[in-house]
Amino acid sequence: MTSSRFVVAVHVLTLLETEGGRPVTSAYIAGSVNTNPGVIRRLLSMLARAGLVRSQLGAGGGALLAKPAAEIHLLDIYQAVESADVFALHRSPPNPKCPVGKHIQPALSAVLGRAERALEGELGEVTVADVARSVTARARR
After folding, report:
1. Which segments of 19-98 does DSSP mark as H helices, in order?
2. Contact assessment for residue 132 and residue 14, using Cβ atoms and an 8 Å cutoff
3. What is the largest CA-CA distance in the chain?
4. Alpha helices (runs of H) in 1-98, residue ranges in sequence order
5. Residue 55 has pLDDT above 70, yes or no
6. What stretch of H or E contains 62?
7. pLDDT band with cut points at 50, 70 and 90 for residue 1
């Protein structure tokens, strides 16, 4: 099963960046993402545990970036909200009496490990500031 947590989290942090330091409510964020505010609150909680967002309480309160957007890499977000490896091997061991079943997991492990490291490398190169600049430029067109 695939998860959209990462993409939604990038959306949330990009929105916080484009708000220029103004606290943003979960209801406002949910309107942008087109989801339930409860989903956003759970995601904000995960992001806060990772030190990526903070909350401002009281009237006019809401979520804020915990550090500059240029210091938040997509890899940080990915690691904050996704709990499993990108690729999962069989949930139950394949048939060890089958020549393919016996050897498929070791054969795939190396290539899947390289693919995951490549993904993490790419995510480590891009910041929320980069995404916000791209979104802002597209909005001006």
Report:
1. 26-33, 37-49, 74-81
2. yes
3. 65
4. 5-18, 26-33, 37-49, 74-81
5. yes
6. strand 62-65
7. very low
End-to-end, the C-alpha distance of the chain in Å comes to 36
Residue from 62, 82, 80 nearest 72 by CA: 80
Question: pTM here?
Answer: 0.87
How confident is the model at residue 99, as a pLDDT?
Answer: 92
- Residue carrying the six token digits 């545990």: 49
Burial class (CB in 10 A: 0-12, 13-18, 19+), 110: exposed
How far is the CA of 70 from the CAs of 52, 73, 129, 133, in angstroms? 12, 7, 5, 11
Q: Are 109 and 89 in contact (CB under 8 A)?
A: yes
**Considering Cα of 105, then 111, then 114, then 115, what sign does the dihedral take?**
negative
Domains along the chain with CATH numbers: 5-85+127-140 (1.10.10.10)
- What is the rounded distance in angstroms from the CA atom of residue 86 to the CA atom of residue 72? 20
Beta bridge partners of 132: none
Phi, psi of 100 (to 5 degrees): -80, -50
